[in-house]
Automatic annotation (TrEMBL):
One Pfam assignment: Adaptin_N
GO molecular function list: clathrin binding
Protein's organism: Miscanthus lutarioriparius
Composition-biased stretches (Polar residues): 655-668
Purpose: Subunit of clathrin-associated adaptor protein complex that plays a role in protein sorting in the late-Golgi/trans-Golgi network (TGN) and/or endosomes. The AP complexes mediate both the recruitment of clathrin to membranes and the recognition of sorting signals within the cytosolic tails of transmembrane cargo molecules.
The organism's taxonomic lineage, starting at the top: Eukaryota, Viridiplantae, Streptophyta, Embryophyta, Tracheophyta
Family: Belongs to the adaptor complexes large subunit family.
Protein name in the entry: Beta-adaptin-like protein
Subcellular location(s) of the protein: Endomembrane system
GO cellular component: clathrin adaptor complex; endomembrane system
Domain Beta-adaptin appendage C-terminal subdomain span(s) in chain numbering: 723-840
Family matches, as Gene3D superfamilies: Leucine-rich Repeat Variant (1.25.10.10), TATA-Binding Protein (3.30.310.10)
Regions annotated as coiled coil: none
Length: 845
């Protein structure tokens, strides 16, 4: 047999690079090709460059070949140039010393005869983002903005924004914003105009925090000449550029109705655009411009229905979902206007589950007396869906429609039919809805109980379904013959029930049943209380102990506590406040609508990771507050302006809790506080309670008597003296922060701004100067249109008491939310009046 010939060593293919040996081989080949004038040199360079880019893609460090790549960059081949620029841009920031080697050939290429190479070189030069090379960027950018090629001017406009992020001082000193503005208003190329507009918005928005001139320049962008100039050219723009121009137009404040109609006429054809982003941006302009015109605003809803429904049926499921989210927001604001289009929201077999869920919510919202039967019939078909979450949502949707008082008779019959489907999740969801229906429509109890009584608790596995059944067994035990025995069997299996919710409902249900059918339930009650008292769950143990002591004290009182006469529930609580919904509407055509929450809830730092947002204005803490980690207000404003836009949710929740305690759904029976109950206490108990108790003055007694309506009157309090403020208050940021965290909220109010004031807020510094002229100082501010946030303080003249104010202004609605804290709470109302008076005068002078 002939000996085997050893195979020649093969070089690694571009798709399978071999690490350091491959890089060394590439470097050697690049050195050989540097300066080569062979006829096929350009083709060889291109092949080697492809191998270098392939290694980069595979994650191999090829920065060692940086010098050789620069040497081989002297070529007229555009493809090779692009690969070279890609390589340089990827490694320049990580190797700033090596990046200096690229300056000469990039500047040379910026003067090339081919506009494509000039543009590519300028883009690569601006993409280095190396602070040490800033001085080499200004001249090429200035020249690029005046280049005869639109492509180069387009690249230069974006490069100016990149330069600002690298060195704001260099960008401003070179007067690039002024050049961009002039180019925006005079350049014949639409894409150049769009890039200039985008760069100017980015530069001036960031610069406005430190410069009043920049704030004034932002105002010029929202002026009538600029807005109408851009709108007249909108058909020439790309889809991306149209969205930028339309976003600008949505922030424009017209001076009269004629301007509103002019803009709407200009943009009418944009509603038929094939791109969904353009259509949504146009709708945002229409909605925001007509907010103050009720009749026209309603007509806008009618006008935008067809384009939105067309977009829902076209394109990918992801696009349909995004459009549906915006349509969902509009449906929730004006359900009656969409009630005739209910068939457009029927679920298709091919729809993803997230699209189906959104459609179910909209079907629930638009149901009325004219379409309830058709909608409920459709929803009942979904109850047997193989997609269990959608089946659950459809059953809930039927129940929500029933709670809206539309054709309740037929809907109750449909719900009761669900109980015959013999599916655990269907039964559980249906029982929860039947419970809610009985709370609102007690007159349907006989029909519902007749069906519910045939359900075995052993067939219900889900805790919420079992809890609903137990609630009905206790509430309507007088109508259900087997109720005491069913409850007794549940008590016997107490240890096997792992859900605290079910055990809590079982305790209350047995108590209710005992007061309605004592002989049959007495044994079960004793066993229930004994099991509850030995329960390891704290809530269950406490409730059992409470019931035991209440029965021990007085069974009649226990009955009035556990089973008081109840009124039908008229309205069920909404899960989202109207303020949140309005803020989402203000951020139409953004991710806020898709996430169904305002942008501050998913962009600000207090909502990221394990951070805990403290009441302090300027500190983000993990765990306990550390005074050493407090950031000054000035530094905070420079580093994180948008964080000031967030609301203090903890403070709002605390305020709600204190206020809502006086408006409970169930009031204690009046005879629980009658004199007979008080006199039934033993003398020892009375003396024990009175010993060490607080003593009340006659003034307090008179106030209590008046509160109880006993006719005691008092002389009206004299009007408070007029409040005057110190003209030169002094309060450092640290003290402000400490006071804000320590003081309780004195007032929370909403007030209005004049239209001129809302327009003037394009320059937030103007409001700060206006309030300073009224002896109210600003210690921190931030935000972007249409939302701005300010923290003010003032001092009472002749006293050390300070007033602290959080002011959140929405320029779109011309509303301001005020939160006031004060050292002297008695003067908070007077200061609030003074502050609102000063705020209402803003922009009028």
């Amino acid at each position: 047999m002939a000996p085997t010939v050893p195979s020649a060593a093969k070089s690694a293919s571009p798709s399978q690079p071999s690490g350091k040996s491959e890089v060394a081989d590439l470097k050697q080949q690049l050195r050989q090709l540097a300066g080569s004038r062979a006829p096929d040199a350009d083709d060889q360079r291109r092949d080697v460059f492809k191998r270098v880019i392939s290694c980069m893609t595979a994650g191999i460090d090829v920065s060692a070949a940086f010098g050789e790549m620069v040497l081989c960059s002297a070529t007229s081949d555009v493809v090779t140039k692009k690969m070279c620029y890609l390589y340089v841009g990827a490694h320049a920031r990580a190797h700033p010393d090596l990046a200096l080697l690229t300056i000469n050939f990039l500047q040379r290429d910026c003067r090339d005869q081919d506009p494509t190479i000039r543009g590519l070189a300028l883009r690569s030069l601006c993409s280095h983002r190396v602070p040490n090379l800033v001085e080499y960027l200004v001249t090429p950018l200035t020249t690029g903005l005046k280049d005869p090629s639109a492509y180069v001017r387009m690249i230069a406009a974006v490069g100016a924004a990149k330069l600002y992020h690298i060195s704001a001082t260099a960008c401003i000193d070179a007067d690039l914003p002024a050049s961009l503005k002039a180019l925006m208003l005079s350049d014949p190329d639409a894409q150049v105009v769009a890039n200039c507009l985008h760069a100017l918005q980015e530069i001036w928005t960031l610069e406005a925090a430190n410069s009043e001139a920049a704030a004034r320049e932002i105002e010029t962008l929202y002026s009538k000449p600029v807005v109408f100039y851009l709108l007249n050219k909108i058909k020439e723009f790309s889809e991306w550029a149209q969205c930028i121009v339309l976003e600008l137009a949505s922030k424009f404040l017209p001076s009269d109705n004629n301007e509103i109609f002019d803009i709407m006429n200009l943009l009418e054809d944009r509603l038929h655009h094939a791109n969904g982003a353009v259509v949504l941006a146009t709708i945002k302009v229409f909605l925001h411009l007509t907010m103050s015109m009720t009749d026209v605003h309603q007509q806008v809803y009618e006008r935008i229905k067809a384009p939105l429904l067309t977009l829902v049926g076209a394109g990918s499921p992801e696009q349909s979902y995004s459009v549906l989210c915006h349509l969902h927001l509009l449906v929730m604001r004006a359900p009656m206007l969409f009630s005739s289009d209910y068939k457009s929201f029927y679920c298709q077999f091919s729809d993803p589950s997230y699209v189906k869920k959104l459609k179910l919510e909209m079907l629930t919202a638009i149901a009325n007396e004219n379409n309830t039967y058709e909608i409920v019939t459709e929803l009942c078909e979904y109850a047997g869906n193989v997609d269990v979450p959608i089946a659950r949502e459809s059953i809930r949707a039927v129940g929500k429609i029933a709670l809206q008082q539309y054709d309740v008779n037929a809907i109750v019959d449909r719900l009761l039919q669900f109980l015959e489907m013999d599916k655990d999740y269907v039964t559980a969801e249906t029982l929860v809805l039947v419970k809610d229906l009985l709370r609102k429509y007690p007159q349907w109890s006989h029909d519902c109980i007749a069906v519910v009584g045939n359900i075995s608790s052993k067939n219900i596995q889900e805790p919420k379904g079992k809890a609903a059944l137990i609630w009905m067994l206790g509430e309507y035990s007088q109508d259900m013959h087997d109720a005491p025995y069913i409850l007794e069997s549940l008590v016997e299996n107490w240890d096997e029930e792992h859900s605290p919710e079910v055990r809590l409902h079982l305790l209350t249900a047995v108590m209710k049943c005992f007061f309605k059918r004592p002989p049959e339930t007495q044994k079960a009650l004793g066993a229930t209380l004994a099991a509850g008292l030995s329960d390891t769950h704290q809530d269950v143990h406490d409730r059992a102990l409470f019931y035991y002591r209440l029965l021990q004290y007085n069974p009649n009182v226990a009955e009035r506590v556990v089973n008081p006469p109840k009124q039908a529930v008229s309205v069920f609580a909404d899960t989202q406040s109207s303020e949140i919904k309005d803020r989402i509407f203000d951020e139409f055509n953004s991710l806020s609508v898709v996430y169904q929450k305002p942008s501050y809830m998913f962009t600000d730092k207090e909502h990221r990771g394990p951070f805990e947002y403290s009441e302090d204005l300027t500190s983000l803490t993990v765990g306990a507050d550390d005074p050493e980690n407090v950031i000054s207000a000035q530094r905070y404003q420079e580093n994180d302006n948008d964080l000031l836009l967030s609301t203090s949710d903890k403070e709002d929740n605390g305020t709600k809790g204190s206020n809502d305690s006086s408006t409970s759904t169930y009031n204690a029976p009046s005879d629980l506080i009658s004199p007979s109950l008080i006199s039934s206490q033993t003398s020892a108990e009375t003396s024990l309670i009175n010993t060490g108790g607080p003593t009340y003055s006659s003034q307090s007694n008179f106030s209590l008597d008046d509160l109880l309506g006993l006719g005691v009157t008092e002389a009206p309090a004299p009007p408070p003296p007029a409040l005057t403020l110190n003209s030169k208050p002094v309060l450092d940021p640290g003290t402000f922060q400490r006071k804000w965290g320590q003081l309780t909220l004195a007032l929370s109010q909403e007030c209005s701004l004049s239209p001129q004031g809302a327009a003037s807020l394009m320059n937030p510094q103007s409001l700060i100067r206006h309030m300073q002229s009224n002896y109210i100082q600003c210690i921190a501010s931030g935000g972007q249109p249409p939302n701005y946030k300010f923290f003010f303080y003032a001092q009472k003249d002749g006293a050390t008491a300070f007033f602290l104010v959080e002011c959140i202004v929405n320029t779109a609605s011309a509303k301001a939310q005020l939160k006031i804290k004060a050292d002297d709470g008695t003067a908070a109302e007077a200061f609030s009046t003074l502050f609102q008076s000063d705020l209402s005068k803003f922009g009028l002078s």
